[in-house]
Write a structure and sequence with these properties.
The chain has 295 residues and is an alpha/beta fold. The protein has helices at 2-23, 45-56, 68-80, 95-98, 125-128, 130-138, 143-154, 159-169, 171-177, 197-212, 224-233, 249-255; strands spanning 35-38, 61-64, 87-91, 101-103, 115-122, 188-193, 216-221, 238-244, 259-276. It has 2 domains: 6-113 and 272-294, Glycine betaine-binding periplasmic protein, domain 2 (D-Maltodextrin-Binding Protein, domain 2, 3-Layer(aba) Sandwich), CATH 3.40.190.100; 115-269, Dipeptide-binding Protein, domain 3. α7 packs across α8 and α7 crosses α10 (197-212). The chain binds 1,1-dimethyl-prolinium.
Length: 295
């Protein structure tokens, strides 16, 4: 007992000391003198690509972890104050409809070229739920469709409301996804996704279409890594959120042999570093010259 108390006391002292020593740095992840790139969730492919960009372009910048929502808020604050800001950005995204933004050129090609978003299903879904499998296989839309749903959500609709509105306004497109042969028995479909704005939009459209067809749907928001392991183990029936060929290449390589890839559900996606158009540089290679403007 006494030994236990001593150990606890020692731990408390150590905890106190580490707080005291590190305290001056708390809440400030940025090294003095470095510029900041405002990032999103740590598991996102674009975060890994940005670490790579920092290394390959020898950028004197720190990448700040945050969330998609916090990234958008940082962008808003900077634009309201006409300050320079650089964020990890992607298309489709409502931010391009709302503000004048541009991608910084990436001459080294770290962020890859044009991406597509793929639908992936668990093994066995075709046999277990052929109607769901065919619907997921047929699901395909344009960046403009996705952007419309994203803008409605950003302007205050719930993801389900925005999805339902888009479905009603695009019934020709949606009806073409729905298989001719209706299943006699419906059931529960589990979709995994990450709470990136683009994936909130797509997953809720598919969720609402399936619900309209009579299925129960659980849309489960998780980390990127869990989304991919979850589809690999079959815990999820499907995901509509795999960014290929570059952004999620590492995650995909881990599970590729234990899933079925149904191909693109959207083409013309892109990731990169994004700045407001008033930022007077055009390339990632110029960032170091103006890093003081990004602190
Ligand atoms: N994103 C949106 C994700 C894929 C979808 C670009 C933030 C990522 O970087 O992993």
């Amino acid at each position: 007992m006494k030994r236990f108390t001593k150990a606890v006391t020692l731990m408390m002292v150590l905890a106190f000391l580490s707080v005291a020593v590190l305290g001056c740095n708390s809440g400030n992840k940025q090294d003095v003198g470095k510029g900041t790139i405002v990032g999103i969730e740590p598991g996102a492919g674009i975060m890994k690509a940005t670490e790579q960009a920092i290394t390959d372009y020898e950028l004197d910048f720190d990448l700040q972890d945050s969330s998609s929502a916090a990234m958008a808020a940082a962008l808003k604050t900077a634009i309201d104050n006409e300050e320079w800001v650089v964020v990890t950005g992607w298309t489709p995204h409502w931010k391009f409809a709302k503000w004048d933004l541009k991608y910084l050129d990436d001459p080294k090609g770290i962020y890859g070229g044009e991406e597509h978003i793929a639908t992936i299903v668990r093994q066995g879904l075709k046999a277990d739920m052929p109607e769901v499998y065919t619907l997921l296989d047929n699901f395909y839309w344009d960046p403009d469709d996705m952007a419309a749903v994203m803008v409605d959500i950003q302007e205050g609709m719930s993801p389900d409301e925005a999805a339902q509105k888009w479905i009603e306004e695009n019934s020709d497109k949606v009806n073409a996804w729905i298989p001719a042969e209706e299943a006699a028995e419906k059931g529960t479909v589990t979709l995994g996704y990450v709470e990136w704005d683009s994936e909130i939009a797509s997953t809720h459209v598919v969720k609402n279409v399936l619900e309209n067809m009579g299925y129960e749907v659980e849309a489960i928001g998780v980390d990127a890594g869990i989304m991919f392991t979850g589809i690999g183990t079959g815990e999820f029936d499907g995901i509509v959120a795999a960014w290929m060929p570059g952004t999620h290449a590492d995650y995909y390589a881990e599970i590729e042999d234990s899933v079925e890839n149904l191909g693109p559900n959207l083409e013309g996606a892109k990731i990169g570093l994004v700045v407001p158009t008033y930022v007077e540089i055009d390339s990632i290679e110029e960032l170091n010259d103006v890093k003081d403007k990004f602190q």
